[in-house]
Each structure stands twice: as structure tokens, then as C-alpha cells.
Design goal:
By secondary structure, this protein is an alpha/beta fold. The protein folds into two domains: 28-150 and 311-383, Periplasmic binding protein-like II (D-Maltodextrin-Binding Protein, domain 2, 3-Layer(aba) Sandwich); 152-309 and 386-438, 3-Layer(aba) Sandwich (D-Maltodextrin-Binding Protein, domain 2). The protein has helices at 2-25, 39-54, 56-60, 72-85, 102-106, 114-120, 131-135, 159-164, 173-180, 202-211, 218-222, 237-250, 261-265, 279-286, 323-336, 339-349, 362-370, 375-383, 396-413, 417-438, and strands at 29-35, 62-68, 94-97, 111-112, 138-139, 142-143, 146-158, 194-197, 254-255, 269-275, 292-295, 310-318. Helix 9 (173-180) runs parallel beside helix 12. The longest helix is centred in the first third of the chain and has 24 residues, at 2-25. The protein is globular and about 70 Å long.
């Protein structure tokens, strides 16, 4: 009798356990999403999260809470504070991360990388993501995150002003010098007309060095391993750039201050180089006051190669020691990288769609047909050499300002190119060595 009851009892226990497991797996999952999107992009991100919660989230019992964490650098500072204090329960499940947080994320010990997610979801077609945007978020052979807000630096110009002056859009630094001499001295409102106004920093200098076939730092601009030294000194690339930069300044074609979109919209600044994510806002602000021209990022010399690195941000996930939360995080990431979301995001901002399928969405096709300015960043990325990568360094903030300060000193204090190369090699190289020593 007992022998017959025991198998039945064991079967009942197994069925009960399976039922409890199924019930547990279907429990609602709440995750947190840190983002750094403001203005129109921020409004869109909040909308996307709501749409996700109302559709996929409702179906899979996932609820996402979107939390704005300020600028990328502010969010990275908060991330570093959490990691330093080891208060891992305060980590988000998904984070909108830019290059300033790449190394911190990789070394966090709590990364749930894109490679990890792809292993868990072999059915996902990563081939739909634009390779050049995907490769930008690789570090030390690991795909860290999914590209999301991808952009590239392009040239905006006041086509109406240039047409009236009888000049074409510039392609090189020398072209900017030639154009500056033919521009009007003042606008109709009496503002002084400025040809070009910018202060180089880490990403922009990486573009110009990349055009010359050089990385800024070793290990493929820090994408393969920690950057430990400069890679643009011995090959002469930094000196070549500084020579042409100083020539623009000496000719009066360049102002050693950051040009603003307000100056450009007011018709005071003829040429503005900035992120392609500004296309939509510039079109709206100009409002037909003049024709907005867009072109490739200007080249250092005629022999240089057109192109600019991918910039923007990606979506990274954290391992909160909870499989349900990791699965939920991945569902959100896939949704935000989907063709429809990427098409809507790109159309409203000027970011480049990271999903190739976005270009087949009718609303996006209509936008590009109406405003050809949106074609420029995509076509520029298509011809940008694959080896041109954005810079990843540990001391990101200090490195950024050291570049600005040293180049400003060359122009403002009349230092020679040779002196500037020497001081930049010493200061920037020192920052890399100090970081390496502190993080061995």
C-alpha cells in the first residue's frame, strides 16, 4: 500500500513545485532605467518607456521606471560613487551611457554586457544594428552595450550667406581661410560676422587626427585595452593638425572660443561644427530665416580623408543578481533599438538610426526627402574609415580639458607648434601614466 502511495505523493510534490516555479516566473518585474536625455530627446525617452510599459511590458509583466540623471558626466559620477561604495543595490538595470563611463562600466564587476545578452538570446539578429555604431561600444574585445543615440560631428553652414558671398561650402581648413575673407563684416542687425569658432577637445581632435590616419592614444584609441600613451606624436599627426589650426587662427578665420548655436541661428556664425543630433532643433530655430546647409566634417588638409567618429551614447545593463531583471532589461534594450523607435527618435532629433530597418520606415523616408540635411550624417559615416574610433581614456575629464587648455595657450600666448606638441605630450602622457599606475 505504502509503495503505491509514495510514487503518487512524489508526483504531486513535483507538480506542485513546477506550478510554484511557473507562478514565480510570471511575477511582475520592475526595473530602473537611468538616462541623460533632455529637451526633445528627453520627452521622447519618457514616451518610449511609457509605450514599452503599455505594450511589451504589459504582456511580459515588466514595468520600467525612467530616471533622468543629468548630463552624461553627472550620471557617470553617480555610477562611480555607487561602485566605489559597493552599494550595488543602487545600480540601475539599464543605463544610458556615453564614453565617459565606458571604462567604469567595464571594470564594475556588475556588467551584464551585450555579449552576455546575445548568448542568452541567440534568436536576436544583431546584424540589423549598423556595424559602425555597434563597434563604437566595444572595449577590450567585448561588446559592452547597444548603441542608442548615435551621432557624428558634421558641418552646418549658413548657405544663404555663403551663396551671397559667392563661395561654396568649405571642405578643408584652407577653404575656411579663403571663405573668411569674402564674408560680410556685419549682419543686418549689426553683429560681427565670424567665420568659424571652436576649441578642440577629445572627440573633435580624434576626428581630425583620424582624418590624418592617426589614433590619439595607443591600443586603437583605447578601444582594445587601457590607453597608456599618446599615438600621435612620433608620426607627426598632432604637429600637422596644430600647424593647420594655427594657420586658421593667424589668418583671422578662427576664434578660439566655442561657437554657439545661438550665434549660428542669429546669422553671426557662418560655420558651425557640432553633433548631427542638432539638425532638427536648428531647422526649427532658424525657421526659414536662412537656408541651413550641411556638409561633411571639414578636413585638416586636402590629402586627409573625410570622416568623423561615431559619438553619442549606448544602453548598458547591470547584473543585479536577478535573472528576471536581466531578462527584463534586455527586453527594454531591444525595444529602444527597434526600427520604429529608432526612426521616430532620429526624425525628432537628428541622431543617426542605429537600426538599419529604420530607413525603411515610411515616416523617416518622408522626412529625409523633405529635409536632405538628414542624409549627410548617414553618408559621412558610410565613408568614415572603420579604424577611426572615438577615444576611451581613464582620466577622461582631465584629458578633455588638458587638450583645450594647451591648444588655447598656443593660440593666445603665441607658442610654437613644437612647444605645444612638447607640452601636450608631457601633460596628456602624464595623465595616462598616472591613471595606469593608480589602476594596476
Amino acid at each position: 500500500m505504502t509503495k503505491r502511495i509514495l510514487p503518487v505523493f512524489l508526483a504531486f510534490v513535483m507538480l506542485l513545485a513546477l506550478g510554484m516555479s511557473a507562478q514565480a516566473s510570471s511575477q511582475p518585474t520592475a526595473i530602473v532605467f537611468w538616462h541623460s536625455m533632455s529637451d526633445e530627446a528627453g520627452v521622447l525617452v519618457e514616451k518610449f518607456v511609457k509605450d514599452f510599459n503599455d505594450t511589451i511590458g504589459k504582456e511580459k509583466q515588466i514595468t520600467v521606471e525612467a530616471v533622468f540623471q543629468g548630463q552624461y558626466s553627472d550620471a557617470t559620477t553617480k555610477l562611480n560613487s555607487v561602485l566605489t561604495a559597493e552599494t550595488y543595490d543602487q545600480l540601475p538595470d539599464v543605463m544610458n551611457l556615453d564614453a565617459t563611463g565606458k571604462v567604469a562600466y567595464f571594470n564594475s564587476g556588475r556588467a551584464y554586457t551585450l555579449d552576455d545578452a546575445l548568448k542568452a538570446d541567440a534568436a536576436y539578429d544583431i546584424g540589423q544594428i549598423q556595424p559602425i555604431t555597434l563597434n563604437n561600444w566595444e572595449f577590450s574585445g567585448t561588446k559592452l552595450g547597444m548603441p542608442f543615440a548615435a551621432s557624428t560631428s558634421i558641418m552646418f553652414y549658413n548657405k544663404t550667406m555663403l551663396d551671397a558671398a559667392g563661395v561654396k561650402a568649405p571642405e578643408t581648413f584652407q577653404d575656411i581661410i579663403d571663405i573668411s575673407a569674402k564674408l560680410p563684416e556685419k549682419t543686418a542687425d549689426g553683429l560681427e560676422v565670424i567665420a568659424y569658432s571652436v576649441v578642440p577637445n577629445t572627440p573633435t581632435l580624434a576626428n581630425w587626427l583620424g582624418q590624418l590616419g592617426s589614433d590619439m592614444v595607443n591600443n586603437k584609441n583605447g578601444s582594445e585595452a587601457m590607453a597608456t600613451e599618446l599615438a600621435c606624436i612620433e608620426n607627426g599627426a598632432l604637429a600637422a593638425f596644430l600647424t593647420q589650426w594655427k594657420a586658421m587662427y593667424d589668418a583671422g578665420a578662427l576664434r578660439n572660443v566655442a561657437g554657439t548655436t545661438d550665434q549660428f541661428v542669429a546669422g553671426q556664425l557662418a560655420i558651425l561644427t557640432t553633433s548631427s543630433s542638432n539638425i532638427t532643433s536648428l531647422l526649427e530655430k532658424i525657421g526659414g530665416a536662412f537656408e541651413l546647409g550641411t556638409g561633411y566634417y571639414p578636413k585638416v588638409t586636402p590629402e586627409a580623408h573625410f570622416g568623423a567618429t561615431v559619438s553619442g551614447s549606448c544602453l548598458v545593463m547591470f547584473d543585479k543578481q536577478d535573472d528576471a531583471r536581466k531578462a527584463a532589461a534586455w527586453e527594454l534594450v531591444k525595444y529602444l533599438a527597434s526600427p520604429q523607435v529608432q526612426a521616430e527618435f532620429a526624425a525628432a532629433t537628428g541622431y543617426v538610426p542605429v537600426n538599419a530597418g529604420a530607413q525603411d520606415v515610411p515616416a523617416y523616408q518622408e522626412l529625409v526627402e523633405k529635409h536632405p540635411q538628414y542624409e549627410v550624417p548617414m553618408s559621412q559615416l558610410a565613408i568614415t574609415p572603420a579604424e577611426m574610433k572615438s577615444v576611451t581614456v581613464g582620466p577622461a575629464k582631465d584629458f578633455y580639458y588638458a587638450i583645450q587648455d594647451n591648444i588655447a595657450m598656443m593660440l593666445d600666448e603665441g607658442l610654437s607648434v613644437e612647444e605645444t606638441v612638447e607640452t601636450m605630450a608631457e601633460e596628456l602622457g602624464g595623465l595616462l601614466r598616472q591613471y595606469e599606475q593608480a589602476n594596476k
